Amino acid sequence: MDVIIQWTYITLKKQEVVLTSDLLPVEKALLLAEDFERTGRVKELVFIDRRNTEWTKKELVKLLQEIETEPHDIVAYFDGGFDKETREAGVGAVVYYKQNHQSYRLRTNRRLGQLASNNEAEYAAFWFLVQVLEEIGVHHLPVIFRGDSHVVLNQLSGTWPCFEKDSIAWLDRIEEKLNELGIQPIYEPISRKQNKEADQLASQALEGKMITSTIELAKKGNDGHE
């Protein structure tokens, strides 16, 4: 979670000045806030997240304590494959996250029917990923979404326009669910090579190989998703 610090500062001449920081990770913002308070000249501190929600320092500290027991620091990958003959799709999702001071990787896939194109399969894969996030309890947090479908990610971010009726329906459905969960999406298009885990899961789903696994990652080597 990233926030902006806005603080009202009392100068040596007893004048009030409102200062604003850059967007910072919440942990760093709280440390900076403590430094500000040590000056003895801070009249008010407000923290503003990406959704323009305002938080007090006390509220943020409490939120961090609650977040630690829930999935957080999430990076989520998706991919969809499509078989023109059967009109079936394979969708794959990979989620890296932290919970209770441990790092995890979740891998899962599914086979879907009655889709019209590879593009729709990619939307279905993103929708599947969002459902997975809901199932593991992700809410009111930023999530980094990565995939090699630049069309889906750029249309979701609003960078590219969308004119196809079916795609607009998927966009509306996805955005409604993200808003419902309070997820703050960060869209990062990547290459197919960088998306090989989700790609393999989608291919395996088309072959009828269903996979669902969650493993704890070794602390050394980080999460392995950078």
TrEMBL record:
GO terms for molecular function: nucleic acid binding; RNA-DNA hybrid ribonuclease activity. Gene3D superfamilies: Ribonuclease H-like superfamily/Ribonuclease H. It holds the Pfam family RVT_3. Residues 70-207 form the RNase H type-1 domain. NCBIfam families: PRK07708.1 (NF005822). This is RNase H family protein.
